Amino acid sequence: MTPMARIRTAATTALCAGVLAAPGAAMADDMPGEGVTINMAQATWDTGWFPAEVYKQLLEELGYTVDGPTTLDNPPFYESASFGDLDLWVNGWFPLHNTYLERVDNVELVGYVVEAGALEGYLIDRATAEEYGITHIEDILDPEVAQAFDATGDGKAEMVGCPPGWGCEEVISHHFEEFGWDEYINVISADYAPSMADAIARYEGGESIFFYTWTPNWTVSELVPGEDVVWLQMENVSLPEGHGDLVDQTSVADLEGCQGAEECNLGFPANDIRPVVNADFIEEHPAVRALLENASIDLQAIFDQNALMHEGEDSSDDIARHAAEYIEENREQVDEWLQAARDAS
To answer: What is d(CA 235, CA 200) in angstroms, rounded to the nearest whole number?
Structure first.
């Protein structure tokens, strides 16, 4: 065989094996999102901003241009995603957000940011719980007990709740209406972070505190269940329309900081945190679907980052740095997610 024939044979073999590709093909495979802009949103609760930034940076590594995330309440996000004005967010809480899904169409849940790790419930400081023997929220309906949490002098307990527009506000409102708690408890529905900062200051001053919270959240790092605060159980459970089939899923086994029970009935079902996407968008972009199906964030990492935000590292630059550091610390796993997305494209 002549040298030229050997070269031609080698070239043919390489082409058949896929070793030689058209110019630019490798780059296209590495950057399937090049030339595509994703309109992304994030929730109004700041504990969701770190996951949003992590996913934004992952999408950018695939070549997508990410516009946002735009901060929105739940109703406008789900409506905008349904219409296609927004493509996605990663701050969906399910089943808490089921009622929003029922009001719209053309949206889809894809993957899990955190699976079954998001808890909700009512808590009080441990010292007051032990002084009055409080284990259930119904115990606070005793006027003498309610006065322990009275910060305004009207005889009612003050409880930090959720701002209007949050999914938890709908469930809390339902609890109050269903069980008549308004007679004994005032709900603080202002901006959550400053309301909790005020509650923590009162706790540090030796006062009793009563609040709603969720995990992952910086509050449970600042006020540690079992040490500083305790979870309250509910004797009876009722959920809003659309959640009724979940009333038997509100108990958590071996929950740290829940007194007097192996199974702590919090009155809220455990949630999955999930990406929510416009259905037309995700059908057109299989690489995004594959990324969302494979990626997730360690729950403890969200706790730790939220604590940093509470300590003052809460600017957009701080959050972007936290996300970049998390990605690099988990680079081996991240590269697997990105490769799955590239393969899908």
So the answer is: 27
Residue 251 has which token pair? 């108990």
The reply to whether 35-117+272-344 and 120-269 are identical in fold is yes
Spell out where 263-343 has E strands. 263-265, 271-278
CA angle 338, 344, 345 (to 5 degrees): 95
Ordered by start, the domain boundaries in the chain are 35-117+272-344, 120-269
In the CATH scheme, what is the code of domain 120-269?
Answer: 3.40.190.100
Alpha-carbon distance of 211 to 196, in angstroms, equals 8
The pLDDT, as a whole number, for residue 248 is: 80
Q: Is 159 helix (H, G, I), strand (E, B) or coil?
A: strand
Nearest residue to 124 via CA among 227, 184, 212, 210: 210
Fold exhibited by the domain 35-117+272-344: D-Maltodextrin-Binding Protein; domain 2 (3.40.190)
Contacts of 279 (CB under 8 A, 6+ apart): 106, 107, 108
Contact 331, 54 (CB under 8 A): no
For the entire predicted model, the pTM comes to 0.79
The band of 203, judged by pLDDT with boundaries at 50, 70 and 90, is very high
Residue pair 184/273 in contact by the 8 Å Cβ criterion = no
Best CA proximity match to 187, nearest among 201, 169, 214: 169
State both tokens at 218.
């910086």
In this prediction, residues 234-255 reach a mean pLDDT of: 84
Give every CB contact of residue 21 below 8 A, 6+ residues apart in sequence.
Answer: none
Mean pLDDT of 246-274: 88
Per-residue pLDDT, 70: 97
